[in-house]
Amino acid sequence: MNSHLQKNRISHKSVDFNMKSFFKYILWTLLFPAFAMVPSASAWDCDVSISGPSAIKKDQTITLEASGNPSAGSYSWWRIPNLIPNGNTAYLTGFEPTFSEYIRVGVTYTTPRGKKCSNVKYLWYEDCCAIIQGGDTVSVEETIILSASGVPLEGSFIWENSNPQSVLLEPSGNTAILTGLTQGTTTITLTYAYPGSNSTCQTTHEVTVTETCNINLAGTLALAVGQYGSVFAETTPEGGELIWTMHPNIQSINDDSIYHTSEIPGIHIYEAKYVLPDGNSCSTSFDATFVKVDSVIGPYCVDSGTTLFKSDFDIITNPEGFNLMVNVSPLNYLTNDAFTDETITASIASGLLDSTTTTLRVINSDKKFNAGIEISMPNYVSEPLKTLGLSDKLDMKIKSNFDRFWECCSESAILSVEGSTNIDLEVSGGPFTIVGIPLPKKLREFVSLDVLKVDLSCGGSVKIKGNHQGCHNITDWSGGGTLSAEVKIGGEAKAKTPDAIVLHGQLNGKTGISQSITAQGGNLLVSSEWEGLELIGVVKFDFYGYTIFGSIKHPLIDKNEMPQVLLSLPSLK
After folding, report:
1. pLDDT the model gives residue 497
2. Using CA atoms, how far apart are residues 302 and 342, in angstroms rounded to an integer?
3. Which CATH class for the 129-210 domain?
4. E strands, 221-355, where?
5. Partners of residue 204 on adjacent β-strands
6. Which CATH class is domain 2-126?
7. Terminus-to-terminus CA distance in the chain, angstroms?
8. Quick one: residue 192, left, alpha or beta (phi over 0 = left, psi -120 to 50 = alpha)?
């Protein structure tokens, strides 16, 4: 109530002041009609008035103008908060007054003759205030967000767009999405109604729609360390200025591109800005990754003639995840030697800093070399022939042919062995003549045996196979056989008695000797058998007119079966 009374009082005061001036003007007109027609400076010593808005909102800036008479004088505005004087004008930004609802503004005018007069204007302070915040420029197809605030709080907002052809305004409460459509300017008006009152306040915000600024950077996304590449800029519209942000990787800058490289793996970011003649600008960046091959791991070995694929290798890059860029070479492997160590290179750009190597052994398992493995074998066949003096006539031939060769295993290349030992019996010469075979004493009284002829022959064969599988560390022995010899004895028996009666007859004998050999595990099982040898014959004598037949039977070699012997076979590792 007091505020309205005060408002009315001030209004009456303003009216009274104007009425005084009016009556004063009427009085002068009646008393001095000549002066009324043409006023003079002496009639109006000094007069000043203030024009401008009659109300102000918080944070709102208004312009006040003072007019003094006679003209050409000077103005002095009274000092109050937020007032900026500028000659006969002043700029006032609204603030909440302390003791009333009005802000008192005053000015003092000094005429050219030094006369002074003053005037006061009371501005009603409106509690309602609305503010729009947000950008004032937007490109075509670009979107910005405007936000509004109002005092007092919790009011409602009404947005209006003066140029719908230029911008699309989509309000939602205290925010609005503004999208540029065509070049031009629009004024956004915000009406704010605060709660508990029918009063509203307005504010405006001007937005200019400029031509769309667009910049795109393109180039190779991933390069090998040490490799050179280019980044190109595409800009619209024409006529702007392209500005590249300096980067240590940049080697040179052209009008719309850069030439770059790096010896450091990782992501490197290049930035560029495009500035249009109207000052509008746009920026963007381009990420280029420089990659190094940290390691490559493949099979330890392969067989000659093998072709591998890149997928057979484990590849690690820095940064990770760029395996598809890596090339592995060579992938075809061939050797004429027993083995060859091949250097494998994994790289993105051949010969640069990004590559790494590993070694792969190429195995030619068909390439064999002598293993130098011997198997010793006793000659049990010749043992019984010592009785006949023929043990040196039967020769045992042992021929070993073992080879070593490389095998490619899952984790390494290992030497393996395979081959065999062949055992044969050979007779040197023959038939043989045995002289002076001892006979029993009783037989010697009737028969003297001077010479025996012996036929010696042999047969059979033994083959012992050996195989060491290096990949599985397994040795396997197999095979065997039987060696045999046959002895045939024949000769003429001549006998003399003290009476010199000549006797005649035949002596014969036959025997077989064998030696069996069998591979069992890592040993050889050797067994032998002698059938025995006897001289058998019939002698015919003439004795005093009588014909007498006498039989002769004499053992030379006893029958015998030797015990089995177990011999260890040599290692094939």
Report:
1. 56
2. 10
3. mainly beta
4. 222-224, 229-236, 241-244, 250-253, 257-260, 266-275, 281-297, 301-303, 306-307, 314-318, 327-329, 332-333, 339-347
5. 189
6. mainly beta
7. 119
8. beta
Measuring CA to CA, which residue among 171, 170, 122 is closest to residue 9?
A: 122
Q: Locate the domains of the chain by residue range.
A: 2-126, 129-210, 293-363, 370-568
Among 4-13, 65-74, 92-101, 430-439, name the most confident range: 65-74
Beta bridge partners of 43: none
- Owner of token pair 């050889």: 524
- How do beta strands 167-172 and 281-297 pair? unpaired
Are the C-beta atoms of residues 164 and 188 closer than 8 Å to each other? Answer: no
Q: What CA–CA distance (Å, rounded) separates 125 from 123?
A: 6
Q: What is the pLDDT of residues 397-431, one digit of tens each?
A: 999 999 999 999 888 889 999 999 999 999 887 78
pLDDT, greater one: 30 or 401: 401
Task: Please give the Cα distance from 186 to 35 (Å, whole number).
Answer: 53
The closest of 328, 337, 264 to 304, measured between CA atoms, is 337
Q: Is 251 exposed, middle or buried (0-12, 13-18, 19+ CB in 10 A)?
A: exposed
CA distance 365 to 257: 57
Q: Name which CATH class applies to 293-363.
A: mainly beta
Measure the CA–CA gap between 438 and 13, rounded to whole angstroms: 181
Q: What is the Rg, in whole angstroms, of the alpha carbon atoms belonging to the chain?
A: 65
Q: What tokens were used for 396? A: 């045992």
Rounded to the nearest angstrom, the gap between the alpha carbon of residue 9 and the centroid of all alpha carbons in its chain is: 86
- Two structure tokens written together for 572: 């094939």
272 neighbors 260 (Cβ within 8 angstroms): no
Distance CA 214, CA 308 (A): 49
pLDDT digits (tens, 9 = 90+) for 164-223: 999 999 999 999 999 999 989 999 999 998 776 677 888 999 999 888 888 999 999 999
Q: What pLDDT does 505 receive?
A: 66
Query: What is the band of 144 on the pLDDT scale with cuts at 50, 70, 90?
Result: very high
Q: What angle do CA 169, 174, 177 make, to 5 degrees?
A: 25
Task: Quick: pLDDT tens for 524-542.
Answer: 999 999 888 887 877 776 6
How sure is the predictor about 499, in pLDDT bands with cuts at 50, 70 and 90?
Answer: low
How many angstroms separate the CA atoms of 333 and 361, rounded?
Answer: 9
Q: How far apart are CA 78 and CA 103, in angstroms?
A: 12
d(CA 366, CA 385): 45
